[in-house]
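Handout, page 2. Input:
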Amino acid sequence: MRNRGEVILKIKNLTVSYGPIIALKEIKLEIAQGETIVLIGSNGAGKSTLLKSIIGLVKPDDGYIFFQGKNISFWNPEKINRSGIFLIPEEGGIFRTLTVEENLQLGAYHFFNQYQQQIKRVMQLFPILQQRLKQVAGTLSGGEQRILAFGKALMSNSKILMLDEPSIGLSPRHIEQIFQTMQRLSQQGYAILLAEQNIVQAFKYANRVYVLENGEIVLHGNSSDLKYHPRIKKAYLGS
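Output:
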């Protein structure tokens, strides 16, 4: 694993509750530029709540979220998004009735003065989108829709890309394609944070892994160190 870049996001003692239910408890996490981090855990473990907290959709009861040294714990989602954090939700995060080009234009809504520069870069990264610019997004394959979501995120000048279950509903070929895309983006300096239940792919491509159970981080470390951890093997690999 290459040397980590500068830490871009830091979470300290984050606690979140929904009424009497504690969804996250004293979460500590950090992610550096060019790093891919995977959150693993069963449904209800708190993975999605953590991503929503970072993007501002859920507010903490306690603790702090720092992005590039600024406390963003109580910023609204639009301000967080404009600052450089983008969440691609489980349902995809694209407008399926609009064309590929219109989706990319919406991604650049707050940065339209940089549109030509950004669209050129996205087309270089994802040539398939160049071929599909006038196509309605809902007619793309599942894998192409996920790639469009990446393109839309990059049009918004993002520095951190967060994904909630990006492999869900995709064929093995498209899952491999999506994880390879994330790897390419991390190599270009983007920080990638994803919640994922596909453990094999998670350990193949992640730099570090955080394991959540009942809203708490019970394990974390380099993916190579945790891959054969007895707790991981028993809970997630069936051995």
